[in-house]
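call fold(seq) -> tokens
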Amino acid sequence: MIASNTLRRAFLLLALAWAGLIWYLSDQSGLDIPQAFDSQDKALHLVAFGVLGFLVMGTQQLPGNAFPTGSFWKVCILCAGYGVLDEYHQSFVPGRNPDVFDVAADITGAVLGAWLLVVLLRRVLR
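ret:
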């Protein structure tokens, strides 16, 4: 269980910083990232929001061995909302376009990131 308020605050600060980085990168007209494979953009969204989901999940008070259903879904909905807001924000940035598949990758990443922290904590706390 993440009981330490200090640890939860650290997760909060990291989550806010990460969300700010996502926003900053979304505000750029163009990023020169070499294309290594098809759908790389979706993979980057998945990873970025996976990290966000992981960090936001770390802000929650988690029970020892039980799966924190309520906290888990709150985190997923919060991160999904941020993904939608991020794509809407991109509609105002020259050279950027909102994409429903980016939102899908954002949501998938957030769910996987939050789930990963829960699984890791369960293993550590056995």
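The chain has a mean pLDDT of 90.
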